[in-house]
Amino acid sequence: MRTILSFAVLLSTVAGADPALAQAAPTVPAPGAESSIPPDMAPVAAPQSAQHEMGSSVPDEQPVATPRARPQRVGEDAAEETPASEEAPAPAEAAAPAANPPAADAPLAVADVDTELRTTTPEQQRLVHGAPLYNPNVSVHIVQKKRFADEGKHEFALYPLAVQVNGKFTNHAGSALHYTYHVQENFALQVSGIYNWHSNESRFNLELIDKVREQAQAASSLLLQWGAQAGVEVTPLYGKFAFYDDQLAQFSLIINGGAGFGGTRHLIRPEVANQVEGQTFTVPARFGDAGTRFVGSVGGGFRVQFGDSYAVRLEVRDLVYTARVDRVDGCNLSDFEKLEAARSANQPFANLDLSGGCKFQKFDGVDPDTKKNYREDIILGRDLVAEPSSDVLNNVSFYAGFSILF
């Protein structure tokens, strides 16, 4: 029995020593440049086995059997992968999930971009009012409020020139003055006035009078001398633009409209040459008052504001006014017939039974400078009211001026 136990202990000792012997076996590399140096032939230490007393029936400790490792043979690659059980554990950083890569169009700071990969210069990346001057990787959309608020402000606008652009039978040129109170940012109340220092019939109509003794109907050639209106103004759109690299200007699209009254007049006699006693005098054109008419307007344009208090205004306005010619200088058809009868009889006009508004003095007397007898104009005035006519005229004019806000 003791012999059998001793044989079992011997087998266990030999089985435990085989792996150690296999691991200690020298590895001979394959022939080549790296095999010129012989491997280190260090002596292999014999494994220490547990000592057992030959007389004991049971060994003190029985070693645990380990799996036999495959010994490396001569000629195998020294860099052969180790068994999975002998691989080193992966570091904790590798186990963590990888961070999401940045988007392709994400903006990059200038300091983070390599100099060789940079597509812009630092000057191009300089921020102006919070936005880069140029960056192909950034799309900037900016919506800002107006730099200068209009709410609660007063505005006086002067238009030195307001010229008619659609004259067929009439020509107008004048000046206008507007006062605007901005109730809200985009809504304002407005009072406007215009005076046409030049209002005359068009060259086309004057040629008709001079060459063929014909002219447009009296209502179609009625002239607007002045106008006064009250209305509103709205600014549905505004923006800004840059000029001279570092200057900003604010512009607004303005739409306005109003209604009021205006004074009209009509041409009685164009400019003529008067010959008296061998002398020739140039007689200026004569106009007759045609009364007050209803006037309405609608228009629009742009206001460009420089700074907080000054602006330039460019507008187009359509002045619409009713035209009816039934009186000239307050005299109707009946008055002109009485005046013509008194002129033929060489009688004074003061004793005539005329309407209350007839200004007969304008058709009486002689001009001391041109020697023109005003009684000759009675027949011309009668022709204007002989066939009463009415029309609605559109006076489209271009306005250019400046304004002050406070």
UniProtKB/TrEMBL annotation:
Region (Disordered), start-end ranges? 25-104
| Entry keywords, A to Z | Signal
Ranges of biased composition (kind: Low complexity) = 85-104
Q: Where are the transmembrane segments?
A: none
Q: Which residues form the signal peptide?
A: 1-17
Q: What is this protein called?
A: Outer membrane beta-barrel domain-containing protein
Q: Source species, please? A: Hyalangium minutum
